[in-house]
Design a protein that fits this description.
alpha+beta, 5-stranded mixed beta sheet, 5 helices
Length: about 325
């Protein structure tokens, strides 16, 4: 008599995803479901449902239980342009809720946005996937001891880097007067959101004032706001931002003429400001090349006198060009 061997049952991972009516008629849901199912494995099933924006979470969880789902997910858009999506995931058995925010560029197609959300959904469901694989391994071990289960690795969760250090070499080119110089700058950045950041820093530039036989030292402390037009992200190599800084400038002149036994120094403080366009090119997961350019203005004019004679002045307006590195952590 021939004895048959029964295969172990396949334990399905069922996810119910709620989207609003605007997304339901676009390619986004289908791309989302396909990407999540590919990442979670053949036993996963992703179903799309419509949900009102004000639907309570408890009602969505009940709908998930009625559909025998393992977990429910909800997609909401943070902004009117639908460039920042919030993904909330809740296990129907009462597990810990999870969420993630995904930022897109305006040029990203809807299908690509859906695929990105689907991959993040798969990463958030890694605990449920591992639990199902473990149950399947145990079931297979009871039915056919020689059987093994190969799982598809879940994508790693997105790393959120809020702080950054920048260092750059820079030149300041005076417009309508003297005061051009070269030097460098360092800064500390904090990015609390995908589109907004803050920066504090120090800068110094050095040049010559030939008409006064003097050297010029420009030092400044900076504090300002960064607005990201194209935020830095792991899936994108380029970033673009606008930066506005308030400056406290210290302009120091050192006179070196041969008729003075010692160098003569004079300096003063001035308020100022700068407005720079920044571009980044990623060269690693957390390091990028940084290029910046824009105007810098001192709110005041510095006249230079030698032996009580006005020989030159430092231009209040300069064009700044900088290049360096930014490292996020």
């Amino acid at each position: 008599m021939r004895r048959s061997r029964c295969a172990a049952p396949v334990l399905a991972l069922v996810i119910l995803v709620f989207v609003d009516a605007h997304d339901a008629a676009t390619p986004l849901p289908a791309a989302l479901a396909r990407a999540a199912e590919e990442a979670l494995g053949s036993a996963a099933s992703v179903a799309i449902r419509n949900a009102a924006r004000d639907a309570p979470p408890a009602a969505l969880v009940e709908a998930g239980r009625a559909a025998h789902a393992t977990a429910i997910a909800r997609i909401t858009w943070v902004d009117e342009r639908r460039l920042e999506a919030r993904l909330d995931v809740v296990a129907v058995d009462g597990g810990q809720p999870r969420n993630s925010t995904i930022t897109f560029a305006a040029s990203d197609p809807l299908a690509e946005r859906g695929r990105a959300i689907g991959l993040v959904l798969a990463a958030l469901l890694a605990p449920e996937k591992e639990a199902r694989l473990e149950q399947e391994r145990e079931a297979r071990a009871g039915a056919t001891p020689a059987a093994t289960v190969a799982g598809i690795p879940a994508p790693p969760p997105a790393v959120v880097r809020r702080l950054a250090l920048d260092a750059s070499a820079e030149g300041g080119f005076a417009i309508g007067g003297a005061g051009s110089g070269a030097g460098g700058a360092i800064g500390l950045r904090w990015q609390p959101g995908p589109r907004i950041g803050w920066r504090v820093g120090l800068q110094g530039r050095f040049g010559d004032l030939h008409g006064a036989q003097a050297t010029v030292t420009d030092l400044a402390a900076a504090a300002g706001l960064i607005v990201y037009l194209l935020p830095p992200a792991d899936e994108r190599r380029f970033a673009l931002a606008l930066r506005a800084d308030a400056l406290l400038l210290y302009e120091l002149l050192t006179h070196l003429s041969s008729d003075d036994p010692e160098p003569v120094r004079a300096g003063h403080l001035l308020p100022g400001g700068s407005f720079l366009v920044e571009g980044e090119l990623a060269i690693g997961p957390a390091v990028a090349l940084l290029l910046a350019a824009g105007p810098e203005v001192a709110f005041g004019r510095t006249d230079v006198f030698v032996h009580q004679q006005n020989v030159d002045h430092l231009a209040p307006l300069r064009v700044v060009v900088a290049g360096g590195l930014v490292a996020r952590f």
